[in-house]
Write a structure and sequence with these properties.
alpha/beta; 12 helices; Bug family tripartite tricarboxylate transporter substrate binding protein; single chain; BUG; 329 residues; Bug_dom1; signal; D-Maltodextrin-Binding Protein, domain 2
């Protein structure tokens, strides 16, 4: 064998040995995970539904991994601020984010100058579930059903209005989809909080409101508000006699969603460990019951299925956003 051939053989052997060393080191790192506390970033203010769900999941995940899971609220820019922080963190499994529609899908379709790519800059680990809204009116509103509300809106174009948590919110998008699907002309009124919107709804300043069932249920039960429909794929277990919008207007569904995501290039072994643990947590009977109480429809899709859900959200809402020329500054 020539000296050159010998040199090449030695280089190949060294490269193979180096690759094996990296593989073993990577495997050992994954097996040791977690060796310290995990930060779970909630890109919203404390006290909201996202925060409540994150703390429920975080406590169970801490028990399962036998390591502290510390929930950290980083609100701002419609959840983009906290989500961006995680996108730029080390992909080691020690920084996770509660991903949601404003920051991942379809929110970026409405924004310019996003600081990250919502697909390629993340490892999307597990979808937790969806949060359908209810469409409510005041108790003495002339429309007793959604069909009557739509008919009334047709008869008074540009007169009826509806409120939501703001431009780009799940309620706003569902209202836009309803308008486009039925051809009605309603005026959107954005609010920053549920309290003022509900007060104005009951006071007659608003005709309708897309609101979380968690917030609205007490007012519905007390007879102050009337629930005309829910925005999920199916009827709510809390209000089984109230139709889903898509029973009356096929294809009109909407709601918020939450999932757990990590920075891109998360080691596959760590991603799989988190997927299995979080799916088991969400699938537990007591957790399912608790999430249902909070108005959440559990849907623990992992890995490629979670990514497929995100891409499906973009396919669904992209045309609605384009048709409505919707932009969030």
């Amino acid at each position: 064998m020539s000296n050159e051939s010998t040199r090449r053989t030695l280089l190949r052997a060294a490269a193979a040995g180096s690759a094996m060393s990296l593989l073993f080191a990577h495997s050992a790192f994954a097996q040791a995970y977690p060796a310290r506390s995990i930060r779970l970033v909630v890109p919203f203010a404390p006290g909201g539904s996202t925060d409540v769900v994150a703390r429920l999941i975080g406590q169970r995940l801490s028990d399962a991994l036998k390591a502290p899971v510390v929930v950290e609220n980083k609100a701002g820019a419609g959840s983009v601020l906290g989500t961006d922080l995680v996108a730029k963190s080390a992909p080691d499994g020690y920084t996770l984010v509660v991903a949601a529609n404003p920051a991942i899908a379809p929110g970026p379709l409405m924004r310019t100058g996003m600081p990250y790519d919502p697909i390629s800059d993340f490892t999307h680990v597990v979808l937790l579930g969806t949060f359908p809204n209810g469409f409510v009116v005041r108790a003495n509103h002339p429309a007793k059903t959604l069909t009557e509300f739509i008919a009334l809106a047709h008869s008074k174009p540009g007169v009826l209005n509806y409120a939501s948590a703001g431009i780009g919110s799940a309620g706003f998008l569902t209202g836009e989809l309803l308008k486009q699907a039925t051809g009605i002309d309603m005026v959107h009124v954005p609010y920053k909080g549920s309290g003022p919107a509900i007060i104005d709804l009951m006071g007659g300043q608003l005709d309708g409101l897309f609101e979380s069932l968690v917030t609205a249920t007490g007012y519905i039960r007390s007879g102050k508000l009337r629930l005309l429909a829910v925005t999920g794929d199916k009827r709510s277990k809390t209000f089984p006699d109230v139709p889903a919008i898509n029973e009356l207007v096929p294809g009109v569904t909407g709601g918020a969603w939450f999932g757990i995501s990590a920075p891109a290039r998360l080691p596959p072994e760590i991603a799989l460990r988190l997927q299995l643990e979080i799916q088991a947590i969400v699938n537990a009977a007591d957790m399912q019951a608790r999430l249902n109480e909070l108005g959440m429809a559990p849907l623990p899709l992992a890995g490629p299925d979670y990514l497929g859900f995100i891409q499906g959200e973009n396919r669904k809402w992209g045309p609605v956003i384009k048709a409505g020329n919707i932009k969030v500054e």
